[in-house]
Design brief:
Strand order of the largest sheet: 6-9-12-15-20-23-25-26
Distance between the termini: 80 Å
Helix content: 10-25%
Number of strands: 26
CATH topology of the domain at 134-273: UDP N-Acetylglucosamine Acyltransferase, domain 1
Strand content: 25-35%
Largest sheet: 8 strands, mixed
CATH class of the domain at 134-273: Mainly Beta
CATH superfamily of the domain at 134-273: Hexapeptide repeat proteins
């Protein structure tokens, strides 16, 4: 067996351990406080908290960063099992990346364009590559066509019916909760973006033009003390019923229900519910007329 590392102790460590045992403080004693103060001073922090082991420390660090269910965290593949375990304890998924043989840290050359977004001194884990196989979906019907460069995230929460077309460069942005449902005989044009944090339900025989955006979340803007980007999300589902046609470049905002047989004009911004068999257009979308039966 090749050890990951070999610990080294000499008489100084033995002396310090004996002092602690002789003092009668075998848990949160003065030595713990001394250690915390020295670490805080060394790193320039106001406080430091000692925990029982590195696994606990990594777990707490990830929780402090907001890592939770549905997140993906990159982990060096040359490491102790606790590094991956701490990610799993948060409900997140570890992705192991090769290390640089000179530093034994993650090899940055393996990241660019594949896993991470670089921003000055920080590294942010992405939500995945968007690449998928048919087995990844909760449900995938017959005769479903994905053109080149379609990206799919959280396919485990996406259900697609039969005879569905998805155009080039479209992004189906599933979420770790709630579902994206796409009904039979639906056509989705090029460069669309669907984000189903709040849930999306698209009925049968729906036509969705190129560049359409469907959004189901928005940041709360009540707290003026923090940037809107860092405020909590409100989630609201979007429902598009059977036989509807959404014009090129339209935007569907959170919480909207579009009725059956509706025509939404190109470039519209839909901010509220649309009744069955109506024609709407504009920003915001307004009623033009009711469709006449033949």
């Amino acid at each position: 067996m090749i050890p990951l590392s070999r610990p080294y102790f000499d008489s100084e460590e033995l002396y310090e351990i004996k002092e602690v045992l002789d003092s009668g403080w075998v848990s949160q004693g003065p030595k713990v406080k001394e250690f915390e103060n020295k670490v805080a001073d060394y790193v320039g922090a106001k406080y430091a908290i000692a925990v029982t082991n590195c696994t606990s420390a990594l777990h707490l660090a990830l929780l402090s960063l907001g890592i939770s269910t549905g997140d993906e965290v990159l982990v060096a593949d040359y490491t102790f099992p606790a590094t991956g375990h701490s990610v799993l304890y948060c409900g997140a998924k570890p992705f192991f990346v090769d290390v640089n043989l000179d530093t034994y840290n993650i090899d940055s050359d393996k990241l660019e364009g594949n896993y991470m977004i670089f921003d000055s001194n920080k590294l942010y884990s992405s939500h995945g590559s968007g690449y998928f196989t048919k087995e990844d979906f909760t449900k995938l019907g017959q005769n479903v066509i994905f053109e080149n460069n379609v990206l799919v995230f959280h396919p485990e929460n996406i259900e697609i019916g039969n005879n569905v077309y998805v155009g080039h460069n479209t992004i189906l942005k599933g979420y770790y909760k709630n579902k994206m449902l796409i009904g039979d005989d639906t056509w989705i044009g090029q460069s669309c973006f669907f984000h189903s944090a709040g849930g999306i339900s698209i009925g049968r025989a729906v036509g969705i033009g190129p560049g359409v955006k469907i959004l189901t979340s928005e940041h709360k803007a009540n707290d003026l003390s923090k940037p809107i980007l860092f405020s909590d999300l409100d989630l609201a589902p979007v429902v598009i019923k059977d036989g509807t046609d959404i014009g090129i470049g339209s935007i569907i905002l959170p919480g909207v229900e579009i009725g059956e047989g509706v025509i939404v004009g190109a470039g519209s911004v839909v901010t509220k519910d649309i009744k069955d068999y109506t024609i709407v257009a504009g920003n915001p979308a307004k009623l033009l007329r009711v469709r006449n039966k033949l």
